[in-house]
């Protein structure tokens, strides 16, 4: 598979052999050759976006239309992101790409899973279209698990085999995105078998997601055609995956501070080859991208974890490229796309200069592109629910003689959240947390017109006042809201309804801060810097309602993700992800079983 | 691309998860994991020819229909041959496979180029069919250069773009075989552009052959879509190829004693990764295969050259597999074909036990297959020329006042043969070598009914009496004959005409030894051991006519190959391969230009 198709081979051959001039020569560089693991002086000739010759040595006899003097800097391949969701940046694909290239990322395999949950195939195909306006290569995959959890979740536009087939036959769709429902794969459930069969018969890449799957189950998952997983969590996971030829994509995302590269890379001890190792950002928010970087931040993390620098660079370039089956990205050699970056040092810093397909898109660390034209936000009306009242935010119980499932969050790790049965004050047939400062409500309201909701009590979650709500709520992206006072909760939800989605903070009934994400309630069509300014402003306001010094903007985003261990909630039910069982919000005291 | 298609994924998943029993478990082995470069105790479960689980450790909980105790031996992937011509073994594909598995080779990318020159597409497709009867996997490629040299050679059934398209659309044809006419590629000649376009549009592997091509020309060759070359000749060649992502297939064949792995591997000094390095046998005769081995002999050569043992094993397994785009051969992991071998030591020795697709085909070093049924030889009448006389073998000249082009062979290296102008005795308008013991004639007679021939004088070639002739004459496979006495030459040619081809030795007008190769004049449908016996008997006879202690059976085979440097000859003309010019057999003394 090639990233650059429709090549005029005659032109490329003529340019390589100097019968016609090349478009670009980048000379006087220290070439980082990830194919052999060498660094040596060289110059690179480019024609029609393709590298046509690499001349080793200081001398350069090229006569190209443009020559760029690399001033002795390192010339690295552009970084290749093996797995990510553009929506998590809260930027549209075009806007995302404009930020990512500043950090040296020139290709990404993307899973438009978030917009897919909200808008279905129409949303996915819009991502493909918008990505074309981006200065980097975004290879969209077809989201395989919409809903992510067929047992507990509902979405307006489920993707099953017929939709998968249609997506895979759409131009610009390159394979099947992370198969999150590993249970269905391993149990060989017919609906999943049929989805995978669509990929297998087209011989496209099938990406995985299989936390805590090991041994024979992991073999079964691999046998089904899944080639990688970015849910390796430990050294043991990494070792097992690499040994069975399952590419281990160590993630380091804005959502996954629970994962640590430092411990994961220990799984490679004793291995001579790291071909099956790479890294992914999965979900990176605009602010993290701006501050830490993108794939280059992961390169830095690998170096910090003690990985050999050349191995670390391969994990960000050639390994992910090869894993996807692309034969012309991830390295600097004849025939490869001219996706390259000039950097002062191999430490994961932002590049000075970035070329994508031989076009200079970043110079002196600045974007070289004209502004994005104004346009109306697509998918601006995806928050479909009736206005709600404080009453709707009450956790009602049939009698005072109940125990409440309080979700203990003290660990701070969503995967370790547990339900503990407690007796809490009941006022007017509803739980009253006004005298319990360590407690708050969390509710999920369906935002696709179903009218469903689920309300639960969270303990040590950190909300000390007011309410915070968002339409970014993996993976169904219903509205999730945390509140101490039901009136604040209702105000926050209603505000999202008015704005078309985003993140909102409310205190004493009034909106104190918000970031609007009108594109499907997930993304803004603004420059990264502009969005980060808004997020920063909101962050300041959030400090007044959260206990933490620097509350995460997206504390709520993973609470509704049922495919992982720990307690989560959908728009209808609480779920214990570890045991795959329902958890009632309350139960009669005399009855150990739930009554809800 | 997969070697095993039409998998029943449900069955494989059920077997991996022990819902149904596996067919085979190989337990108590030291697994050589070429993916990670580790060796550790393990057991391997197989279902439907596919590895479904690898259990690390000494324990084995598998309940398979058959369990093989590996007795602590090493379990290696079967070897993968990246480039070879089955015909060069002088065995049919089925017979070749029966010998190759004894040496641990379980897959080979094969180029049926020799039979293609003789029989065209019909011959190529017969190789595909016969390979199916073989106990190993033979992945036939479509020969791209028939004739090998469009400028100087003719063949009965040339392959151009339409034939290439037809071949590539034939089941069992996996790509384009070695593109020998590198000049045509680099010059972007339309006929070659069209041939390559057929491969590129189907996105199949395109293998290369580009001796002495370097720099911008090599870049151009790579840009055309060619992915490898097995004509690396030096450390510099290996380094250049690997650096530009051109797989360097270091060959070690029966014909190429001039190549040395020892010097070639020095090209990898300073490289951290050897992904683009592998080895190939190219042309291995039956006797060499029986005595030295097949790919395992190359493993031994790599070890002798000081290559790290795990790297060396990768060069014979995973590297060539990955290079071809096959995702399920060359390693032992779930999803891979169960092509494995048990060996006592990692030193290139023959294996004890070999499995292909989970079927045990070799045990205790012996083939476990029933005899091949008798069948008539296909392509038994490919030697088409009229009977010749001694007169036909004379090198005639227009006058005594000529200089003869004597091909100096003292170096023993065909690539260094040069033409030297000499005055030689002329009797009855023909060169007379009877008083010149260091000289002989070499002639090429067209064997496809064209009636053409070319006769030249060779010096220090080593023939001291009689004649030797063969229909194995790369790549056109006309009859090539070396003789001191024209009557012996005619007798040898006429004998090949009678037998349908092979190798024949004549002395004093009588056949003193021969090996019949009735299948296209290239192959015998007999067991390797039987053929080797015949070749040994012939070798003894050859000692009576050649100067060497152990004359090569195929001294003549490369003399007609015009695509390499040095002097060669076709059925019509002598060629200087280095300058790509014609060389006349003689010239008038007063005229520096040729008159032939």
Low-confidence stretches of chain A: none
Computed Rg of chain A: 25 Å
In total, the number of strands of chain A is 31
Structural class of chain A: alpha/beta
Oligomer class:
homodimer
Mean pLDDT of chain A: 95
The major beta sheet of chain A can be summarized as: 9 strands, mixed
Specify the helix fraction band of chain A: 10-25%
Task: Tell me the overall shape of chain A.
Answer: elongated
Instruction: Assess the beta-strand content of chain A as a share of residues.
Output: 25-35%
Counting DSSP H or I runs of 4 or more residues, the number of helices of chain A is: 15
Task: Describe this structure in a few short sentences.
2 copies of one chain form a homodimer. Chain A has 596 residues and is α/β, with parallel strands linked by helices.
Distinctive features:
homodimer, 15 helices, 31 strands, 596 residues, alpha/beta, 9-stranded mixed sheet
Annotate the secondary structure layout.
The structure is a homodimer.
Chain A: H1 9-16, E1 24-33, E2 38-47, E3 50-56, E4 66-69, E5 74-77, E6 79-84, H2 93-100, E7 105-110, H3 113-131, E8 137-142, H4 161-168, E9 173-179, H5 182-186, H6 190-202, E10 205-208, H7 215-223, E11 228-229, H8 235-243, E12 247-251, H9 261-264, E13 277-280, H10 286-292, H11 295-304, H12 309-315, H13 318-324, E14 340-343, E15 353-356, E16 359-363, E17 366-367, E18 402-408, E19 418-422, E20 426-427, E21 430-431, E22 439-445, E23 453-459, E24 467-470, E25 479-483, H14 486-499, E26 502-507, E27 510-516, H15 528-542, E28 567-569, E29 574-576, E30 581-583, E31 586-588
Parallel strand pairs in A: 1-4, 1-5, 6-7, 7-8, 8-9, 9-10, 11-12, 12-13, 18-23
Antiparallel strand pairs in A: 1-2, 2-3, 5-14, 14-15, 15-16, 16-17, 18-19, 18-31, 20-21, 22-23, 22-25, 24-25, 24-26, 26-27, 28-29, 29-30
Helix pairs in contact in A: 4-6
């Amino acid at each position: 598979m090639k990233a650059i198709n429709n090549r005029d081979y005659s032109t490329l051959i003529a340019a390589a052999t100097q019968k016609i001039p090349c478009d670009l020569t980048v000379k006087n560089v220290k070439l980082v050759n990830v194919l052999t693991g060498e660094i040596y002086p060289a110059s690179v000739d480019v024609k029609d976006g393709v590298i046509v010759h690499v001349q080793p040595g200081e001398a350069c006899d090229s006569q190209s239309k443009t020559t760029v003097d690399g001033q002795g800097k390192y010339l690295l391949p552009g970084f290749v992101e093996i797995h990510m969701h553009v929506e998590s940046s809260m930027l549209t694909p075009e806007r995302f790409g404009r930020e990512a290239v500043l950090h040296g990322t020139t290709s990404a395999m993307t899973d438009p899973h978030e917009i897919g949950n909200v808008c279905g195939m129409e949303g996915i195909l819009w991502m493909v279209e918008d990505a074309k306006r981006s200065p980097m290569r975004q290879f969209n995959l077809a989201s395989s698990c919409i809903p992510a959890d067929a047992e507990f979740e509902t979405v307006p536009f489920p993707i099953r085999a017929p939709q998968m087939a249609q997506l895979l036959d759409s131009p610009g769709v390159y394979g099947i995105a992370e198969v999150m429902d590993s249970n269905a794969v391993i149990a060989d459930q017919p609906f999943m078998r049929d989805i995978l069969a669509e990929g297998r018969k087209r011989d496209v890449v099938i990406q995985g997601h299989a936390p805590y799957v090991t041994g024979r189950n992991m073999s079964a998952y691999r046998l089904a055609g899944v080639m990688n997983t970015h849910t390796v969590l430990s050294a043991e996971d990494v070792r097992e995956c690499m040994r069975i030829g399952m590419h281990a994509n160590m993630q380091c995302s804005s959502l996954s501070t629970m994962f640590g590269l430092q411990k994961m890379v220990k799984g490679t001890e004793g291995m001579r080859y790291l071909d099956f190792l790479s890294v992914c950002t999965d979900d990176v928010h605009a602010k993290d991208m701006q501050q830490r970087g993108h794939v280059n931040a992961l390169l830095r993390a690998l170096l910090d974890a003690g990985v050999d620098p050349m191995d670390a660079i391969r994990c960000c370039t050639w390994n992910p490229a090869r894993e996807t089956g692309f034969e012309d990205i991830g390295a600097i050699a004849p025939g490869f796309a001219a996706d390259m970056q000039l950097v002062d040092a191999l430490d994961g810093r932002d590049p000075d200069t970035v070329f994508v397909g031989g076009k200079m898109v970043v110079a002196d660390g600045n974007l070289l592109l004209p502004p994005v034209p104004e346009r109306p936000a697509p998918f601006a009306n995806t928050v479909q629910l009736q206005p709600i009242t404080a009453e709707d935010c009450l956790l009602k119980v049939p009698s005072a003689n109940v125990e409440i499932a309080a979700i203990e969050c003290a660990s701070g790790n969503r995967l370790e959240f547990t339900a503990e049965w407690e007796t809490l004050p009941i006022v007017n047939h509803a739980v009253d947390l006004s005298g319990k400062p360590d407690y708050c409500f969390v509710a999920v309201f369906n935002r696709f017109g179903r009218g469903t909701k689920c309300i639960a009590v969270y303990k040590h979650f950190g909300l000390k006042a007011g309410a915070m709500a968002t339409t970014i709520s993996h993976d169904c992206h219903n509205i999730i809201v945390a509140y101490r006072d039901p009136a604040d909760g209702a105000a926050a939800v209603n505000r999202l309804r008015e704005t078309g989605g985003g993140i909102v903070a409310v205190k004493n009934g009034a909106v104190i801060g918000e970031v609007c994400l009108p594109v499907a309630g997930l993304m803004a069509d603004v420059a990264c810097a502009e969005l980060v300014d808004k997020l920063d402003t909101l962050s300041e306001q959030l400090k007044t309602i959260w206990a933490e010094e620097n509350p995460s903007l997206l504390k709520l985003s993973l609470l509704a993700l049922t495919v992982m261990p720990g307690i989560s909630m959908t728009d209808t039910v609480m779920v214990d992800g570890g045991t795959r069982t329902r958890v009632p919000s309350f139960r009669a005291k005399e009855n150990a079983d739930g009554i809800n």
